[in-house]
Amino acid sequence: MNNWKEISLHDIKNIRIGHAQDEEHATGCTVIICEEKAQCGVDVRGGGPASRENQLLNPMMSNDGINGLLLSGGSAYGLDAAGGVMKYLEEKGRGVKVGKEIVPIVVGSCIFDLGCVDGKVRPDAAMGYAACLDSERNVERNGNVGAGMGATVGKIHGDDFAMKSGLGCYCVQVGSLQVGAIVAVNAIGDVFEMDSDRQLAGLLNQKKDRMISSEEEAVKLLQLASKFSFNTTIGAIITNARLSKAEMNKVAAMASNGMARTIRPVNTSMDGDSIYALSVGKVKSSADVVGTLGAHVLGKAVNRAVLEAEEKYGYKSAQSFR
To answer: From residue 170, how far is each of 182, 253, 258, 268, 302 by CA, in Å?
Structure first.
């Protein structure tokens, strides 16, 4: 890995990333705006996804690229934020031309953050539009921002013993190939250091002075049933490789392994875990290489999401135990 150079996700051309959030009510959204149409695939492994237009990403469908991707809080309500993304893209003249009209293609998924502070306040079209405006700044941020504003982890014993998580980005360059990840980590499980047994965040013990294993607790209970199902990890792999929609679906599937290397347990029936993959460049590579790098950067982004999250709303964070 000596030739894997870490770069900013924002170094990848033809995309802009923006965020908007309601800090008081612990929710927000993140948008990826494609300067040019991006081939996109998706891998859904969780049992309870809240998503929009994902069927268009099936290689059998005629869609030949997306204009924007929404990652949002608010559970299914948060899908309303896509309306603001569509409005922004329509104003920019980006989308499928249908007669005299333009229809932007916006896909997206949401996390369940309704119980973090106030479930009656959710991302809406105005917040989605604000995130698009913020993308014009295109500044990388991690932790308590955007779709990660109300994210928490380690919820098998309920909200009282969970920890604060957030949004994470990580990107590498190998030669001319760039592969990056952005992810909002809102898992029922614990987060571990990439390919390690070092727990970074997750389930707290009764005294809330140390972390314990969600997997071990699940075995004791003989079930995996959170008192509050405030779960789902969503994210995207972005690459400057030139790959087809079918290949990007393969990249998304391979990259999802980065979650399995960092979150335990993961992909349960109470999660809506979904990973997108966007091709926004023309560098020659294979889906297998991009997928391999994708798993690496996604795992690193998951780690960053919890390491850069600050204590908030009464939740301890990984920073609390440093």
So the answer is: 7, 18, 12, 25, 9
Tell me the residue ranges of DSSP E strands in the chain: 5-7, 15-22, 27-44, 51-52, 66-72, 96-98, 101-103, 106-110, 152-153, 163-164, 167-174, 177-184, 190-192, 199-201, 234-241, 263-264, 274-283
In 10 A of CB 242, how many CB atoms? 14
Compute the distance between CA of residue 170 and CA of residue 312 in angstroms, rounded to an integer: 23
Strand pairing partners for 101?
Answer: 98
Return d(Cα 191, Cα 151) in angstroms, integer. Answer: 13
- pTM as predicted: 0.95
Q: Taking residues 50-63, what's their average pLDDT?
A: 95
**Could you give the strand order of the β-sheet that contains 199-201, starting from the edge strand earlier in sequence?**
199-201, 190-192, 263-264
DSSP 29-69: EEEEEEEEEEEEEEEE-SSS--EESGGGGSTTS----EEEE
What pLDDT was estimated at residue 223? 59
The CA distance from 149 to 166, in Å, is: 6
Structure tokens of 50? 């809240």
CA distance linking residue 215 with residue 301, whole number of Å: 22
CA angle 171, 175, 178 (to 5 degrees): 30
What pLDDT is stored for residue 228 in this prediction? 45
Q: Encoding tokens for residue 6?
A: 């870490």
Write the DSSP symbol of residue 9: G
Q: Which residue has the higher pLDDT, 20 or 215?
A: 20
